[in-house]
Amino acid sequence: MNREYDVVVIGAGIAGASAAALLAADAKVAIVEREGGPGYHATGRSAAYFAPAYGNATVRNLTAASAEFFYSPPPGFTDVPLIRPRQALFVARATQAESTTAMRAENSSLQPVDREFMSTRVPIINSDVIHHGLLDEAGGDLNVDAILQGFLRLFRTRGGDLYTNTTIDNVVYRQGMWQIDLPDGMLRTPVIVNAAGAWADGVAELAGLGALGIVPKRRTALLVDGPTDVEFADWPLVIDMDENFYFKPDAGQLLVSPADETPSPPCDAQPDELDVAIAIERFTEVTTLPVSRVRHRWAGLRTFAPDKTFVVGFDPRASGFFWLAGQGGYGVQSSPGMAQLARHLLLGTTVPDGFASIVESTSAVDPARLIQHA
What we know:
Blueprint (H helix, E strand, L loop, with lengths): L1 E3 L2 E4 L3 H10 L5 E4 L16 E2 L6 H8 L2 H5 L11 E3 L2 E5 L4 H10 L4 E3 L1 H7 L10 E5 L3 E3 L1 H14 L3 E3 L6 E5 L2 E6 L2 E5 L2 E3 L5 H7 L8 E10 L12 E4 L5 E5 L2 E5 L4 E2 L9 H14 L7 E11 L6 E4 L6 E5 L9 H13 L14 H4 L2 H4 L3
Parallel strand pairs: 1-13, 2-3, 2-14, 3-10, 6-16, 14-22
Antiparallel strand pairs: 4-9, 5-9, 6-8, 7-8, 11-12, 12-13, 15-18, 15-19, 15-20, 16-17, 17-18, 21-22
C-alpha cells in the first residue's frame, strides 16, 4: 500500500474525525488509527456532557460556537438528537465563596441559587455541607456515538479513507512531503494533522520534533445506584465549584467522578481502586445517599497542554505538521468549533456563519506558544 493524500490525520477520535470530515470537502484525506475502531480511548469514555460554562475563555468560546451544531445538525448528519437539555449545578461549601464569586464574574449567564433551591432540585444534596450554588441552564447530555458516527459518515461520503488497526513505524519529511511508514506500505502527504490524543507528543517525536509537554491524565468514573424514593432522571449535572467531583444521572443510575487528573503514560487506561474510593468519599461527603455498591467503573485519558488550552495550528519548526491536540475534557463538546477552526487554518477557507467567533481563539491555541517551553 503506497498512496498519496493532501492531508493525513493521525487519530480517529472526535478531534481527528470531525476535522477530517470537514477537510474532505476540499481535499483528499486519510485517517490513520492504531485501534480497531474510531473513538476507542477518550472519545468513547467521555462524560458526554455539553457544559458551555466549563473551562477557560478559549474553551468556552469554542464550546459556545458548537452549540447550534448540536441542536440543529446539518441535513443527513444524524437521524437521532445529538443533545438533550440538562442543567448544570455548580455547588460550593461555605469555604468556597471566593471560587463562587470568581466563576460568577467569568460567566454572567450563571444564576446564583440558594440551599433551598439546591436541596429541592437535587434532594440528596446535604444542605449542611453545601452553601452556595450557580445554575447553568444551557447544558445538555451529548450523544457522543451519534456525533462521532455522523462525522465519520460525512468523511466517508466525501471520499475519505480510514485505516484502522494501523501502527505507524516512522514519520520522515523528504522532498516536500511527509512519508508515513506503515507495516504494509506507506502514505505520502504534504500535511500531517496530529490528532493522536494521549499519543500526540509521541507522534511529534516520531516526526523528529520535540514534545510540547502535552500530558495524558487519568479520569475515573463509576456508576452507583440512585435513590429509590425519588425520581432523579432529570436532575442536573452537579459539579463542585473547584471541580473536585461531579455526578449526574446516567442510564438509570448515577455517574460519579472524583474529577481526578493523575498524570499517566499513554495507555488503555484502567480505574485505580484508590480513585474509586476517593470518588465515593467525595460523593458521600456532600450528599445524603450512601453507596453500598459500585455497578461499573472505568477510566480514560484526557490530555492537557501546560496551560490547559487547546493546541491547534501549524508547528513553526517543520513544514506541514499541524497540531490538533490538548483537548482536555472538552474535546467532544467543542468538536464542531475546533474542526471549523482547523479547516480554516489548514486550507484558508472562510469560516461559516455561526462560527465567526472561533477565529478570535487562533493565537490562544497556536502551538508556537509552547515551543520555547518544550
